[in-house]
Amino acid sequence: MSLLPYVHSSSRPALAVVASSALKIVADFITAERLAGNIVYPVVEKIFAWSHNCPLETVKVVIIGQDPYPNEGEAHGLSFSTQKSGGKLPPSLKNIYKELKNEYGVAFKEPNHGDLSAWGKQGVLLLNPVLTVRKGVPNSHEGKGWEEVTAEAIKAVDNKEEPVAFMLWGEKAKLMKALIKNKRHKIPETSHPSPNFGAAQKGFLGCGHFKQANDFLAENGFEPIDWCCL
Q: How many angstroms separate the CA atoms of 164 and 206, rounded?
């Protein structure tokens, strides 16, 4: 199974660097998972949805997560986002909506879904360092090669001439900071929005990252993101 054809053309040159090594390793791993009877999320056509939802040349903000949601009907290739037809909102996403309410008050009306793809249309790249997961087992595809692949995507954004805001939520996302070399970018960091072990209360809730990103975009002459538009 070749994965590169599923990548948007704007990101394909960056990922082609690892196509013969890391991409092949993860492709073989996913095939083995499925042959062993395991269900893998998201479906292969959605693994690189982030590259289609927000092509490289349009990126203004990057929100880095961890790995896809492991429950049926949730993961669709965008960090923290769920399929519009999904059921209950994941706890992390509930806290993201809570923070949006903190920052924007009555202007933010919580949607009845978890699909964040509307942000991508405005230039928000929603990227997980690990792009697949075994059903019901969070972090099950960590360390299988995906990190090398997505590092190339982050490097490609870092190489853009235009300044970009990288929002790093949680310890795994913060590890990606080492890949961001250019000083023109803004890199706000905080805890993960998950309620597990009180993570969201350790900085995420009250972080102000959405307004910080917009202030940064405005300072650099770019249209701010309408975070309330979902």
A: 22
